[in-house]
């Protein structure tokens, strides 16, 4: 019976029910106050935040450590909302891939990451997760992070807070129900955000992850030259870097191994 009570207690609290140990004859306000009436001070007050649409970009100017100033300024402005464009306390480079749809390159990318002993973050849409269970399972099994890129890829500042939450939690719940996998990282579709949207993401229990390096790699009909792209990836390296790459890119799949080797040769390491 004690074990059953322990299981039920958090459910009752979550539902806003009165605690069982409250004296029913005590009519004081404290005794009759339900959990749902107690303000949750861990939540961000999103109604006080600006919902003006902002389009993120790291810019081209860098500091003495090759860190883009745009990424540095973004962290300074939004770190309190758990939003990051680079990892300030991490000297390693993080590779991230946006998974809008499968173009036949992800298995090759996973092969290279396994060969080079590098862990990456894969931001997936709900449709991608549903249609590619073998790849999702492989990402999990091989130690990568599967992260949330929304349900339908909308511009978040253009939808309501309730719709934003639904966009996030649909993917979250699918991964939890299907793989018992708990997502914690989110990337805004199109890189479009607002202060209010950042607050919604934080209230969902997520960190918002942007990037300190990205380049035009998403157009499958106009893929960048491999030598040029490899030079771009290597030249952008800096401590705490977050690279945004797209897994639809055959160029990325082909150059990834060499780029990792050359970045390591330059004195950097990967997560």
Output the number of helix runs.
10
The CATH class assignment is Alpha Beta
Q: What percent of the residues sit in helical stretches (DSSP H or I)? A: 25-40%
Average residue pLDDT: 87
Distance between the termini: 46 Å
Task: Report the C-alpha radius of gyration, rounded.
Answer: 22 Å
**Low-pLDDT residue intervals, each spanning 5 or more residues:** 1-39
Widest β-sheet, arrangement of strands: 5-4-3-10-9
So, the CATH homologous superfamily? Glycoside hydrolase/deacetylase
CATH topology, by name, is TIM Barrel
- CATH hierarchy: architecture: Alpha-Beta Barrel
* Cα shape: globular
Would you report the number of β strands? 10
Tell me the β content: 5-15%
Please state the structural category.
alpha/beta
Tally of individual domains: 1
Largest sheet: 5 strands, parallel
Helix/strand order, N-terminal first: HHEHEEHEHHEHEEHEEHEH
List keywords for this structure.
alpha/beta, TIM Barrel, 5-stranded parallel β-sheet, 3-stranded parallel β-sheet, 39% helix, disordered N terminus
Report on the architecture of this protein.
It contains ten helices and ten strands. The chain has helices at about 1-15, 30, 70-80, 105-115, 125-130, 135-140, 160-180, 195-205, 225-235, 250-265, and strands at about 55, 85, 95-100, 120-125, 145-150, 185, 190-195, 205-210, 215, 240-245. Mean pLDDT is about 85; it is low at about 1-40. With about 270 residues, it is an alpha/beta fold. Helix 4 (about 105-115) packs parallel to helix 10 (about 250-265), helix 7 (about 160-180) packs parallel to helix 8 and helix 9 packs across helix 10 (about 250-265). Strand 3, helix 4 and strand 4 (about 120-125) form a beta-alpha-beta unit. The longest helix is centred in the middle third of the chain and has 19 residues, at about 160-180. The protein has a single domain, classed as Alpha-Beta Barrel (TIM Barrel). The strands form three sheets. Strands 5-4-3-10-9 form a five-stranded parallel β-sheet. Strands 2-8-6 form a three-stranded parallel β-sheet. Strands 1-7 form a two-stranded antiparallel ribbon.
